[in-house]
Amino acid sequence: MKTLPNPCPTLREGLSLGAKEHSGFCDVWNWIIDFFRNIRENVVTKVNDRTGKINIVAGDGIDVIASGSTITIGLGGGESKDEDNPSGSDPNGGGMDDDPGLWTDAEPAETGGFQGGGSGGGMFAWDESTATIGAGGVMVGRKWVAASGTGVEGTGDGTYSVHVTFTDGGGSLAEVVAVDAAAQTALISYTSAVSALHGTLAPKLRELDMEALYYDVELPLCRVLAEMETAGFLVDRKALAQYGETLQGVMDETEQAIYDAAGETFNINSPKQLGIILFEKLGLPHGKKTKTGWSTNADVLEKLRYDAPIVADVLRYRQYAKLKSTYVDGLLKVIDPDGRVRTSFQMTVTATGRLSSTEPNLQNIPTRTELGSQLRRMFTAPEGCVLVDADYSQIELRLLAHIAGDAEMQAAFRSGEDFHTVTASRVFHVPPEEVTPEMRRRAKAVNFGIVYGISAFSLAQDIGVSVAEAKEYMERYFDTYRGVKAYMEQVVETAREQGYVETLMHRRRELPELKSSNFNMRSFGERVALNMPIQGTAADIMKLAMVRVHRRLKREGLRARLLMQVHDELIVECPASEQEQVERLLTEEMEQAASLSVPLIAEAHSGKNWLAAKE
Fold this sequence. Notes:
- This protein is an alpha+beta fold and 615 residues long.
- The protein contains 19 helices and 18 strands.
């Protein structure tokens, strides 16, 4: 986007000269067309999809009116009356050769059009099916909306302002008022900075081999995320409130049980007071006392869960209190009038490239417990619609097999058998049919732990065995998947030499920690070096899948729309009549997002609510 020039004292004079006779005005007009076309194609501003006023955020420089699927932006020529143009409309001020009729005196046709003359308050409008652009107003659907005002004016210092009033014959619908010259100057300064950065960063993208990542993934994803944020996720407010009341009832009962066991009332949420009750009054085993009192964190209390009933009650109370305060009460506060919750997706927060969700965080809805999973039941589809939930199957392990080039692991995935069962069979040296649920659980912990650079100590804690036993499991694992072991050694060494790791799409993460003199910091850097190429590539593939799904939904003319992305999972809302087609579409686009040496598998399910769609 280039800086807006100021070729004449006012844009109004440029119109009276005629676009073909004033090259400077042509630059301005082309800039305006490009600016708003970019807004239409690349920026979706939050707007009530019925009616309402919305603002373009960039510098707060332009106001827009939205009605239905039409976005209308005031750009009129104003009342430019002079000897050559006594009527106030300019019959010679037509659009550019490749875009005729941007300014016209044509009468409105039956299917929509423009009306010239009068005040000449021109418009620039888009519709999903037609573009209606005129010098006196615009047809919004079958309804004529007139516009009048000063239009677009130059201020003489390189800035422009807009002032248009929209009416429907029965009074003013809305008034679009320009910001002052200072704000416009700030917008121009911003666009100039963007232009300057482009000159520097575009070559840098080529140098780092990141052009595909930027142009094929991150840039088109902006529109996808904007539409997802605008759509929002429908929440059953009544059911959520009832769920909160149920949680509160259990909390009240548990609170009283804690007081009875303690023999007194106290602030359960105070670590200091709780520590005094548990470790001084009741004499439970404890660690070292610090200046702030006894530690009562979850790790400490979990070890004491079976030593006294009060400990289990405290853990239960905390669980219910967390669910109610963070999720139930938190979500109830942010439900919009239309019943939907709208999160904000962050593209540049995580170091691995994963998307994050804030205000509220919908990616953090609990799933590991039955109680927490019930929250997903509150996220529902409108009447006549369903939710389609699709997620990748073991994408990070499949990427590990691909990136490490481990033949044994690749063969296991190509076989189509349960990968954790196959791993358990090979690690424990038993036939697959003799693998017990406990063996599979431990093999699964090793499989996923390896991806995150887990230590024998951490694995031992996760699966409840001794450190020596956990170490033995890991040695058997590396004996089975020798390519993985070689990859882990090689990727850390390469990262140490070049100072960074990268994904298959060349997303980088710098790793200065690998050169730290601090052992713990170096160990952290090594774990990141192991994990980031895997998790980051998974994130890149998911983003690419989102872009592919979004485009295909549009291409096939479906009413379905993406609502949420949670790590390896996509949620789509669609009419019930589109359910089967959307399930097939999601599966195909997600599986075809990347070509690996092992199958990339996605599975889709549907339901009336998020929980049902996951089952």
